[in-house]
Amino acid sequence: MIKVNNLNKIFNENTKKEFHALKDINIQIQTSSCVILKGVSGSGKSTLLSILGALSKPSSGDVIINNDSIAKLPDLHSSLFRAKNLGFIFQSYNLFNELNVEENISIPLVPLGFSQKEINQKVQTALNLANIEHKKDETVSNLSGGEKQRTAIARALVNNPDIILCDEPTANLDNANSLKFIEVIKKLKELNKTIIIATHDPIFDNLDFVDNTINIKDGCICE
Ligand SMILES: Nc1ncnc2c1ncn2[C@@H]1O[C@H](COP(=O)(O)OP(=O)(O)O)[C@@H](O)[C@H]1O
Ligand SMILES: [Mg+2]
């Protein structure tokens, strides 16, 4: 379970540019559930995801993931925590264009000290899950948008994380590729992953495997 307790994020605190981006957020996300975090641009979705993903620290309050306090993790532990537990799928794919698909996918495994044989097995599993096996030797710069996204998905899955965080995952995809993305999410849900998708894309409305939609507006969670 993920518990968000009285979470606040204030940018540029105590300056003229002070901005209260997240206001007293309290949410609970059940293990193995799929949750949509819905809100217009600027509502605080990415800020919340980055704190959930231990990429940034809250100004006050805390996030508890499997009994670990994200706010109190020292930076070194944050990166290890991410490597073990979390997969990120961003709107921009953040891939290395000059490397091939397989090389990009294996990158998160490097700090974890696996053997080459283990790496190959894990990469193979991720390639299959994300339906990008057939392009594994292709240089990323030669891929279509949908293929780049499936490579990014495979990279997010390669460490077999329990929690998958997606930030506007369909923003750069056409309808056909968005539907393929939803099929991958459905498979992940069947694998009992906890999935959080920040989006304002109506394609995520009324999907049968979505357990909960959390609406965020001006940094507040609306009932
Ligand atoms: N590093 C930052 N410094 C100052 N303001 C920021 C920073 N990051 C985000 N914000 C502000 O916080 C608000 C929420 O941003 P964000 O979480 O990116 O929204 P969303 O992802 O829903 O579009 C916006 O008004 C944005 O300008
Ligand atoms: Mg955003």
Automatic annotation (TrEMBL):
Signal peptide, first to last residue? none
Supply the InterPro entries for this chain. Answer: AAA+_ATPase, ABC_transporter-like_ATP-bd, MacB-like_ATP-bd, P-loop_NTPase
Record's SMART domains? AAA
Keyword set, alphabetical order: ATP-binding, Nucleotide-binding, Transport
Task: Mention one GO molecular function.
Answer: ATP hydrolysis activity
Give a Pfam family name: ABC_tran
Task: Tell me where on the tree of life, at the top rank, the source sits.
Answer: Bacteria
Asked whether the keyword Transport is assigned, the reply is yes
Where is the ABC transporter domain positioned along the sequence? Answer: 2-223
Q: Which family does it belong to?
A: Belongs to the ABC transporter superfamily.
> What is the protein name for this chain?
ATP-binding cassette domain-containing protein
